[in-house]
Amino acid sequence: MCHLASSVLLQGRSVLYITLEMAEERIAERIDANLLNVPIQQLVDLPRQMFENKVTGLAKKTQGTLIIKEYPTASAHSGHFKALLNELALKKSFRPDIIFIDYLNICASSRYKSNLSVNSYSYIKAIAEELEVKPSVLKKAIRVAHKAEFGKTQQEQELLETILTTVGKTL
User: Fold this and answer.
1) What pLDDT shows up at residue 17?
2) Which of 65, 71, 137, 155 could form a disulfide with 14 if both were Cys (CB 3.0 to 4.6 A apart)?
3) What span, in angstroms and rounded, lies between the C-alpha atoms of 15 and 111?
4) Which residues contact 41 (CB under 8 A, 6 or more apart)?
């Protein structure tokens, strides 16, 4: 997802990257490494002059804007994302061209409370459906990551893929 976000930035687009998994700093580090075309392990050890040259060259190539927002795992749902978009528009005049959400399985649902016992298929489906409504309201493209578990049965895996196919077509 960081690679996709950096590609969109290089096209001069505005990107909102919402993460529920990693710290904002780690996401920014990954996107920087992609934009500067440097392995992430070498990013910290890059000589200052080389870093400045790469950043200057990058600034000439792109005018994209990036905002990264971190939420604690399973704490934010589509309503929080909409409020964030409204706040960014109001306070920073920022309107993203695309929104990346990392990742679907650890978003919260506004329909189901976290203490209810509901199967994972229904819960993930609810989250996908809630996010599905937002692009039409906000007129933004949303890109959502999903982690599939290798220990799942073939039937469970197909059900999750069906959800993601639906989300991929509508978002």
Assistant:
1) 95
2) 65
3) 27
4) none
Q: Looking at the DSSP assignment, which residues form a beta bridge with residue 19? A: 70, 102
Contacts of 74 (CB under 8 A, 6+ apart): 20, 106, 107, 108, 114
Mean pLDDT over 35-61 rounds to 90
Q: Residue 67 in contact with residue 16, Cβ under 8 Å? A: yes
Token representation of residue 2:
């960081």
**Total residues found in the chain within this entry:** 171
Dihedral class, residue 47 (left if φ above 0, else alpha if ψ from -120 to 50, else beta): beta
d(CA 2, CA 145): 11
Which residue in 90, 92, 104 sits closest to 132, CA to CA? 104
Q: Is the CB of residue 66 less than 8 Å from the CB of residue 11?
A: no
Q: What is the pTM of this model?
A: 0.80
Helices 2-10 and 24-36, axial angle in degrees (round to 10):
60
Q: What are the tokens at 171?
A: 């978002």
Dihedrals phi, psi of 81, to nearest 5 degrees: -65, -40
* pLDDT tens digits, 134-165: 555 555 677 777 665 555 566 666 666 665 55
